[in-house]
Design a protein that fits this description.
- The structure is a single chain.
- The protein is mostly helical.
- The protein is about 45% helix and about 5% strand.
- Strand 1 and strand 2 form a beta hairpin.
- The chain binds zinc ion.
- The site of zinc ion has 8 residues, from loops.
């Protein structure tokens, strides 16, 4: 069994979270399409509320995905320029491409604004992923034998 870089493990956890949300979003899109069609077909049907709930969920999930992307960047020692979107090293005070000044705290871990399930809030902690055990291993092609 290969020894994994703990950071790689954290990153793949984030990537899995992104995948989960991406498929949820896809599911909601499907449902919205159906709800909208049912409403179109039958004038007596009003699915507005159900459609709106799903639209809100999609927005929330999209924000969470953006958060995870920032966390992945952070684990890789990168941050995104808020102006041009270029990836910069965490130590940089200015964007090397457009020169935008970064906030003082831009070198710190991204804030968990919308995601509350991940305990990655304290930057001084070495790896915050301890609490989040990888119990549900991805059902990929090859299943590596977990003790
Ligand atoms: Zn920039």
């Amino acid at each position: 069994m290969a020894l994994f870089d703990p950071k790689a493990k954290i990153i793949s956890g984030y990537e899995r979270s992104i995948d989960d949300r991406t498929s949820s979003i896809r599911k909601y899109y499907d449902e919205i399409g159906k709800l909208y069609y049912d409403q179109y077909k039958d004038m007596n049907v009003d699915n507005t509320k159900d459609i709106n709930t799903r639209c809100e969920a999609i927005t929330r999930l999209s924000n969470e995905i953006e958060d995870y992307k920032l966390k992945i960047l952070f684990e890789r020692g990168l941050k995104k320029c808020p102006n041009c979107g270029t990836e910069n090293s965490l130590e940089y005070g200015f964007c090397f491409k457009c020169g935008t000044k970064f906030d003082e705290d831009s070198a710190n871990a991204p804030k968990t604004s919308v995601i509350d399930e991940t305990p990655a809030a304290e930057p001084e902690k070495e790896e915050a992923a301890e609490e989040k055990k990888e119990e549900e291993a991805p059902a990929e092609e090859e299943k590596k034998d977990e003790e």
